[in-house]
Predict the structure.
Amino acid sequence: MPASAPFTGVIPILATPFHDDESPDHASLDRLIRFFGELGVDGFTVLGVLGESNRLTDAERTALIKTAVAAAGGRPVIVGTSHTGTAATIALTREAAQLGAAAVMVAPSKQPVPNDAVVFEYYRRVIEASPVPVVVQDHPLSTEVHMPAPLLLRLANEFPRVACIKAEATPSPNKIAALKAGLVRKEVSVLTGLGALYGFFDLERGSDGFNTGFAFPEVLQAMVARMRAGDAEGARRVFTRYLPLMVFEQQPGVAIRKEILRRRGLLASNRVRHPAGSIDAATAEQLHRLLEATFPGQDLTRPVRIEA
Amino acid sequence: MPASAPFTGVIPILATPFHDDESPDHASLDRLIRFFGELGVDGFTVLGVLGESNRLTDAERTALIKTAVAAAGGRPVIVGTSHTGTAATIALTREAAQLGAAAVMVAPSKQPVPNDAVVFEYYRRVIEASPVPVVVQDHPLSTEVHMPAPLLLRLANEFPRVACIKAEATPSPNKIAALKAGLVRKEVSVLTGLGALYGFFDLERGSDGFNTGFAFPEVLQAMVARMRAGDAEGARRVFTRYLPLMVFEQQPGVAIRKEILRRRGLLASNRVRHPAGSIDAATAEQLHRLLEATFPGQDLTRPVRIEA
Amino acid sequence: MPASAPFTGVIPILATPFHDDESPDHASLDRLIRFFGELGVDGFTVLGVLGESNRLTDAERTALIKTAVAAAGGRPVIVGTSHTGTAATIALTREAAQLGAAAVMVAPSKQPVPNDAVVFEYYRRVIEASPVPVVVQDHPLSTEVHMPAPLLLRLANEFPRVACIKAEATPSPNKIAALKAGLVRKEVSVLTGLGALYGFFDLERGSDGFNTGFAFPEVLQAMVARMRAGDAEGARRVFTRYLPLMVFEQQPGVAIRKEILRRRGLLASNRVRHPAGSIDAATAEQLHRLLEATFPGQDLTRPVRIEA
Amino acid sequence: MPASAPFTGVIPILATPFHDDESPDHASLDRLIRFFGELGVDGFTVLGVLGESNRLTDAERTALIKTAVAAAGGRPVIVGTSHTGTAATIALTREAAQLGAAAVMVAPSKQPVPNDAVVFEYYRRVIEASPVPVVVQDHPLSTEVHMPAPLLLRLANEFPRVACIKAEATPSPNKIAALKAGLVRKEVSVLTGLGALYGFFDLERGSDGFNTGFAFPEVLQAMVARMRAGDAEGARRVFTRYLPLMVFEQQPGVAIRKEILRRRGLLASNRVRHPAGSIDAATAEQLHRLLEATFPGQDLTRPVRIEA
């Protein structure tokens, strides 16, 4: 896991903050990016699933990308540009690049009859039209598209503009190992998603780091640092120590993550856009106890100390 | 079936024409609308499933709405404004109204856990924010959302802005009968979709007409006229005569319809946007034979004579 | 379309008759088979989707196979033996063969991650263990498994025990043409299902006949006879004449078909096993009108005259 | 959480052991049950999802139930009897009761159109026909049926034969709390499944224990004991300590669990029936490291010491 590769380490997927009236909250997005930047993360991804990209208008997307790039202070910003139409994905990709995105993240969409050749052609068109590197997102839970490892490898090996595979198909440890083994272009990174639920197991099998929304990047950074230092058991201890929070946080929806980010002082509101829902009081109370047990006595609005 | 009600009769769902390079072809859209207008249709719906709305950027949508409203010459234009986010549906709805839409057509989106209350709230927000009447689209084949008749009736009966239900859940004859029986606001129309596959059976059970993409509105007009005249068996004969074409045309995708519209001289190209595909040569040849058998000796670029 | 091939022509898929208390009605199954046999059908398929095979215990299956084989009077009986487990499919297949089945019909089951290699291995194991020919059923609507034409062709071309492909993936005309073109073992037949909805279009593209549940095999026989005689336009006329009934009958579920079979004097009850439902009164009334219009003045308990 | 209630505490879901040739391995099932019995578990569930019930013939089921009841030595055996047909579910339920099952576990099956009334009627018929108590399984991940809490509560409150709800719909903590709050018949237990992934969080919100396949019931017993003793933070520590193993084990499929049971000396083979697959070598090696880290120096063929 070379520390110097462009898309390795810890690249948080960012929530899109909203005000209580569901309008985009750019001040919170700015604050979120600056805080994570001070933690030393390796980049940011905006407008992914956690970013509620499927609940935004194109105009809102444009404004959010501008805010993210401005706040990132030179750290790379990856922008999710997936769309159910190939031409529209290309249009969103070009716009993101023009606005300063360092890369785009692209997932395929479900077709009436699954067809690897159509998925390949979708990516070919987007990659060839993209002015910036492309992160291939493999997340069948949200896309309902299953991309076998050979298809992903063909994309990564044939197209120099593919920079990274975000590997979120379960069982992820096995798939990550298959991808790492099959990559000819070794500069392509493979990153872990899924809220880091399988984080240590993925690192063990070759993951180059994290590209996920877990609200404490400090934890993921500690795992990556130990792995890079050859201390796998140390990484396992960090994983074990914080896994209950990862498990709790990755329950369906983004409501819990937004509440954590609010408690960290980063989001003004935990609002999730309708038709999804914000956190309920009982879950918030349960989260509160979990955070107390996980970070006893710590101020969550500051970078947390990792103990393991 | 009162002929004078606002959303009854035959309201074609329009394809979105593209050039061979997949860019929107406004001249063809204009031609299509003017030709159907001269047939005397009761309105037009743009940006539905047949309109490939899920493959368009917001900017393309805006331009297409403008062209449609201008070409419609006063006939009502219904604009599909469904979006996976409620706030975005509202934004698209307001823009459509501002651009001259007579109504908007709205379908719900799939949630992780199906929930009628969430669907109701989605519609409530959109309906209350809409400056124009709303057509509720019930098309589980594309949405994967099943709306039971009581939910649809609650929407139609509680909200005066609901003008029409586009009933496309199979078995449609039964559902249409249940809707017609339960409507308190009798001015709400119930229209048949699904490419008119069950067209006569739906009319028999109370459908107020068609809101579908069958490429020969003349056939649907003939069926509606006979039903209104009390000649159900005449309507059945028309249905029988043209049913093979309806069956062939409603095969999955919009490729066959676009090819028919091209043969009618309305679309310059039969191009379907990627990742969907355009018609293949063998299917086009089979369609050609079917059109010859259905309209022997007729010029399809002119309004066709209906025989039954 | 050679008339002499083993699995060509018209092979009805049979409903499983139940008494009003939902217990299997063997007398009605016997009557159904004898009546269809007198029509001259080319075989029978029992325990398919229409046969409600997924609502039967193994013991009920055994008894129904015995009744079917005894009633068939030497005509081939194909038995559906699909099961979610491969070993269980093999067990059911061996039992069916032992009980006198001429062939078995086998469909794959949905896996967590679609995988053509797993589907191939499933078929390989079943085919190699089967004492009788195998009909490969391609019906993604019920299985949620999409088998591309190359996979089906590999099965048909590699395994001599594959006798037939029941082609029910839409668009079926195209897929049937692809299969016919790719078959090396020309003795493998390709049959049309889907309630004959695309019946003529499938014949046009090379289908060898019908393996479907349409309740008037006479109609399908008339289409096949005309095609074999080189009279495609005659087949098209038959198709057109009876298509409304095919469309009405293939609405979701098997309730309408069972009611037609009851009206034909073949089933004592139209009962469908729970959790599916039997026909409702309004649909039965609508069906009655349709049958009157389709077969004016004819006695449906006798073989019907085909007019076109 | 009363310790004396009939279906509370820790009731493992058992794998169905197979020989390497995929035939049922009764000796291993016997050994598995006796070992877990000596741990003091509160019962056993056989023929659930983990038991690969959907890959068994009815005859195999019968034999396995006999072995389980004989080995259980008086401890209650719950038998999964779900079937896609209601009458068949009843037949399997009656047989299980006759063979000595203490209860049956029943899940609904997916219908073409979701309908709570049909699910209720399915359960009503099964419950009224069942000679033994019924466990209602709410596991949408496998059934694709979403049962809202009010439906589950209606079943539990109206039918005295409902003894337990196996709550496996995510987010499970919230649903369990809603069920516990709404139960009028307080003797109905609510148990945690999902491989105990949310185990502590479910206990916190009112779960009465575990009905899941985690291969170390000792861990679950320790959590339940601490909760019953009022030591929630102790239960949390146990959960945290063993959560990596729970997470790893609940990856899709049952292969990992069978391998653990094999390493514990309980299963002669880790074979999973086709079309599912057995564990691969790399995953087995990763599991080996995880077990070493989780139970350092312990003999897994003996009851393990729980440390936290």
User: Anything to note?
Assistant: The two ends of chain D are 22 Å apart (CA to CA). Strands of chain D lie at 9-10, 44-46, 77-80, 103-106, 134-138, 162-167, 189-192, 209-210. Chain D has a mean pLDDT of 97.
